[in-house]
Amino acid sequence: MIDVAEPPRYEADLCIGYDAKQSDYVAHWLDRFGAGGARVVATGKRDGDRLVIVFPYAEDALRDRFTHDRASNGSTLLIEAQASDGTWSTFARYALRARP
Fold this sequence. Notes:
7 strands; mainly beta; single chain; seven-stranded antiparallel β-sheet; globular
């Protein structure tokens, strides 16, 4: 993922795989902010055109919600942060498109 800013403010690779034995997905972000965040692996479930994965960081969890829109063939990514009281708030929101 590379944002559209010039120069990009955020760049990352996201690896997602399906674990058939557990019937869930495993995800791993490798971003350009450093290796520390790469120590946490997420798991999640798909429901139709939505995949929700949760990264259980020690301080606060992050939840990624990928939603595919079949009509436009585009996707959105909503990243939410969990507060210590368990509530979720928006951390970032992206419109995703394939690289031309």
